[in-house]
Amino acid sequence: MKNLRERLSAGQTLLGCFLNLGSSLTAEMVGKAGFDFVVIDIEHGSGTEADILHQLQALEHTPAAAVIRVESHERQRAHRVLDLGAHGIMFPRVNTAPEARACVAALRYPPLGVRGVASMNRACEFGVSFRRYVASSKDVLLGVLQIETAEALDNVEEIAAVDGADVLFIGPLDLSMSLGILGEFDHPRFQAALERTAAAAARHGKATGVLMPKPEDFARFHGLGFRFLACGSDGAMVNNAARALAETLMEQRRLRSG
To answer: Positive or negative CA dihedral for 230, 233, 234, 240?
Structure first.
């Protein structure tokens, strides 16, 4: 299994991209591009749980590990995609330490958590590696908790202290909206939120992540100590490339039409 948790513990900086189209083809393209991880988004993306299997299969022989952003920390939301073979779960809008503990519990088997136990699934090779998978899952599966509200910032120290909260991941739009500065990523309050989250994570030996608005932001976030950095999505790339191509062609048509 691709072990993001081990790589982060070793101090590596990991680069990723979101997948929001629900397409196995774009998943394979993005995976083969060389990213360390992808986030398959079923909170805001157009895909559903039914599309995840095909995306995971498409990513299997690429370098990218698959993190699934689920809709909530409810146990069944997490264990369904874990059984399909996800390498980690991203939980949105985690506001308190009890919510953080519920997220981690959904990742782990009893007695450490509440994940349902089943052997006939893709994650454990349909039973072939069941005991090995169960024994190693606590050390391999990555728990990514999103810091997206002012309430989460108020509780970020306690959230970071939760065992299994491996990455505190800033959602820039939601967090800036909650702070009353939507999209103002250079605002002092947003900068302070970044610094506060990164500091709390560092104090408890955890990583900090973010969806960067643009790739040129890498130096800024890396300088703050962020090591789990995502940028862009398959949907945005298709949209931007299609618009750029159309605009170029229409400009050529205008120039030649007089």
So the answer is: negative
For residue 217, how far is the Cα from the chain centroid?
18
Domain 4-232 maps to which CATH number in 3.40.50.970, 3.20.20.60, 3.90.45.10, 3.30.70.20? 3.20.20.60
Task: Look up residue 150 and give its two tokens.
Answer: 């002012």
CA distance 4 to 217: 22
Spatial contact of 200 and 157, defined as CB atoms under 8 Å apart:
yes
Q: What's the pTM?
A: 0.95
Q: What angle do CA 152, 94, 196 make, to 5 degrees?
A: 35
Q: Which residue has the tokens 């958590």?
A: 113
**Mode of pairing for the β-strands spanning 88-91 and 228-233:** unpaired
Cα–Cα dist 37/68, whole Å: 10
> Six-digit token pair at 235?
């949907």
Q: How high is the mean pLDDT in each 10-residue block of the chain (258 residues)? A: 93 98 98 98 92 96 97 85 97 97 96 94 94 95 98 98 98 96 96 98 98 96 98 97 97 88
Cα gap 83→215, rounded to integer Å: 33
Closest to 90 (Cα-Cα) out of 102, 115, 73, 76: 73
Note whether 160 and 203 are within 8 A (CB). yes
Per the annotation, the verdict on 87 as an active-site residue is: no
